[in-house]
Backbone:
């Protein structure tokens, strides 16, 4: 997306708006922000706000298609769970701890609407369950946090379709009430 001096912008990961004051070397933008300070940011850290207060998104369809194709075709069951099997918890107790907090799953969680957040988290749950069943892992802990209980409810509803698993609250001492344990028989 090309920026011009005078464009209204919204910061991606902060609750700030501003105006492009100058375009510096290497496409760095100087933004006069609503917090009263000037910020130097890269173009991918802000979005242009249209006159009707809608956000102008730029989608490079070729780049998007290549990322989807490459990520879908190359991901195997091992790569889905690789970061979870490298933890000490897995090494010593053979428990897969799967953190579903959005910061762990996507680069810019603030860009997502609520339904997109839930969808992203549930897609990750489904991929991890499929991989765990395929690799014959015995125990998973989905760390979903406390929140309003929507994600926890969705996870448990999804897990009801499996006959060979036991679903329960994870250890309260270790996780509080923000995790669900799955034992695969």
Residues:
């Amino acid at each position: 997306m090309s920026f011009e001096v005078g464009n209204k912008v919204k910061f991606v990961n902060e609750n700030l708006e501003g105006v492009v004051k100058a375009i510096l070397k290497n496409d760095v933008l100087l933004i006069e922000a609503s917090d009263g300070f000037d910020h130097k940011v890269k173009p991918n850290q802000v979005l242009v706000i249209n006159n009707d207060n809608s956000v102008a998104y730029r989608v490079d369809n070729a780049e998007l298609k290549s990322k989807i194709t490459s990520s879908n075709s190359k991901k195997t069951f091992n790569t889905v769970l690789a970061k979870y099997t490298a933890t000490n918890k897995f090494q010593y107790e053979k428990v897969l701890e799967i953190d579903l907090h959005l910061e762990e799953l996507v680069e810019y969680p603030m860009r997502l609407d609520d339904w997109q957040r839930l969808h992203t988290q549930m897609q990750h749950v489904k991929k991890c369950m499929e991989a765990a069943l395929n690799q014959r892992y015995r125990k998973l802990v989905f760390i979903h946090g406390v929140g309003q209980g929507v994600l926890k409810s969705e996870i448990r509803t999804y897990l009801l379709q499996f006959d060979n698993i036991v679903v329960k609250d994870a250890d309260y001492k270790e996780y509080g009430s923000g995790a669900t344990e799955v034992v695969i028989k």
Summary: The first helix runs from residue 61 to 74. The longest strand covers residues 17-23. The mean pLDDT is 83.
